[in-house]
Automatic annotation (TrEMBL):
One of its GO terms (molecular function) is glycosyltransferase activity. The lineage of its organism: Bacteria, Bacillati, Actinomycetota, Actinomycetes, Sporichthyales. The keyword Manganese does not apply. CDD domains: GT4_PimA-like. The keyword Transferase applies. This is Glycosyltransferase. Keywords: Transferase.
Length: 474
């Protein structure tokens, strides 16, 4: 039986979309194709439209809540991700089926994203992430994540919040009705064939005979572009036609993304004298519907990262685009996708921070046309497992017969005046601590005194009544 579904994302839904919005878009697309009435709602901005479902938005951070309230009230089922219910916990008080998308472990991602912040700022960011996750885990009816490794992580979190209990276990001993796998997917259609070029003969320095390594996504602090740039700087000595292209280095929400690795990448490329000659940064963000033009023109897809907790639980969405366009892959070991590359022989996975191993892996694939062609065949075979129509099936099945969690959310808090008062007080204490750490107690006291005096002056100068104000002869 068709139901009304609200898919809510904190990302912008435009022609230039990043991972969270892309995932929300395709969830909405697949659910609409099964006859459900779907609205995709962005809490920031949206101008991308489709005939398949409704797309709308409001700038929730500015207080424009009414459109979001209307969509939630309309829906039978809400699918949410990220921080939405942290900032708008009233959503959890509505009598809706709640699907929580945990494909992005935000608390682990922050360990890298906020690595350059002060300790107090780090505490604020991490506390916010845990607060967001706690609410989702307490109130969710059904959870999805991107990999088995992530599922193990989230089963631990669910266990800590007492969601692994006898009631849920009796209903389903495998706990798939509580949390199931929905990997990031690829388009159900093959990429459109294009005759033109967007790189060779177009980007300065990239000639018609260039061998192109494509980095298809942003450069964030958990990535290691420097080792890759060093490998290319070495490789150019034996293969002068090699070119590394960073496609769209600036995230659509650039102010929200840490960019220390991006600055390092520019600096090292310049120091090694390969910037603009063998290493190219395409500023901005490639429109979602045009990304295939860059992917189809490349010879290899590349992705390098550091080995840490963020790596262990990530699921690199750019790797799915490599599958979609049949690109052999060279990547760093340590994450979920590197294991797939190795097991399915989709290219090569090399040790982290190993310039020589990375250089050699790239050269082996570039030097052997037959190896590259055979690898492309295996890449396309693996890609079939990740079509959106396939990977989204657990959500399709849930929405076909939605249910409230059998355990009745045993640890869910009451969302009311006491909750909001405690939350707001805790936030103020954290922010005061951060301010003092950065600026010191004296500045805090001085600022507080200045604000108190300013408020007192405004009170003194305020007209005693509206009548008195209206009687002013001027």
């Amino acid at each position: 039986m068709p139901i009304k579904i609200a898919v809510i994302t904190d990302d912008v839904v435009t022609e230039r979309m990043a991972g969270p919005a892309i995932r929300a878009w395709h969830l909405a697309t697949e659910l609409a194709s099964h006859g459900h009435e779907v609205t995709l709602f962005s809490t920031r901005f949206a101008d991308r439209q489709t005939a398949d479902f409704t797309v709308t938005y409001s700038a929730v951070a500015t207080g424009a809540l009414e459109p979001l309230r209307e969509v939630v009230a309309w829906a039978d089922c809400v699918i949410t991700q990220g921080y939405t219910t942290f900032f708008e916990p009233w959503i959890l008080t509505q009598d809706k089926y709640l699907v929580v998308d945990l494909y992005d472990p935000i608390h682990i991602e922050l360990l890298e994203a906020e690595s350059a912040a002060s300790p107090a700022e780090q505490e604020i960011a991490l506390a916010r992430a845990y607060d967001a996750l706690d609410l989702q885990v307490e109130f969710g009816d059904f959870f999805i994540c991107a990999s088995q490794r992530q599922r193990d992580l989230w089963l631990g979190y669910l266990s800590a919040k007492r969601r692994l209990n006898f009631v849920n276990y009796r209903v389903d001993p495998e706990l798939n009705q509580l949390i199931d796998l929905v990997p990031f997917g690829i388009s159900n259609d093959d990429p459109p064939v294009t005759d033109g070029h967007v790189l060779r003969g177009v980007v300065p320095g990239i000639d018609a005979d260039a061998e192109i390594l494509l980095w298809a996504g942003g450069i964030y602090n958990w990535f290691d572009p420097v080792t890759l740039i060093r490998a290319v700087a070495e490789l150019r000595r034996t293969r002068p036609s090699v070119h590394l292209v960073f496609m769209g280095v600036r995230h659509p929400l650039a102010d929200a993304v840490a960019d220390g690795s991006l600055r390092d990448a520019y600096r090292v490329a310049e120091e090694l004298e390969v910037l603009g000659s063998h290493v190219h940064f395409l500023d901005g963000w490639v429109p979602y519907e045009q990304r295939h033009q860059y992917l189809l023109e490349a010879d290899l897809g590349v992705s390098t990262h550091f080995v840490n907790a963020e790596t262990a639980y990530s699921f690199r969405t750019r790797m799915l685009d490599y599958l979609w366009c049949g690109l052999p892959i060279v990547c760093t070991e340590g994450d979920e996708f590197a294991a797939i590359v190795a097991a399915d022989e989709l290219g090569e996975a090399v040790p982290a921070r190993n310039v020589e191993a990375l250089r050699a892996a790239i050269e082996r694939l570039l030097a052997d046309d037959n190896l590259r062609a055979q690898t492309r065949v295996r890449v396309r075979a693996t890609a079939e497992r990740y079509r959106w129509s396939s990977v989204v099936q657990p959500v399709v099945q849930y929405c076909a017969a939605p249910y409230k969690s059998p355990d009745g959310h045993p640890t869910a808090r009451t969302i009311g005046p006491v909750f909001y008062a405690k939350r707001d007080a805790t936030r103020r204490v954290r922010h005061v601590r951060a301010y003092v750490e950065i600026n010191g107690w004296r500045r805090l006291i001085r600022r507080g005194t200045e604000r108190t005096l300013a408020a007192g002056l405004r009170l003194v100068r305020r007209p005693r009544s509206s009548t008195a104000a209206n009687d002013d002869p001027s």
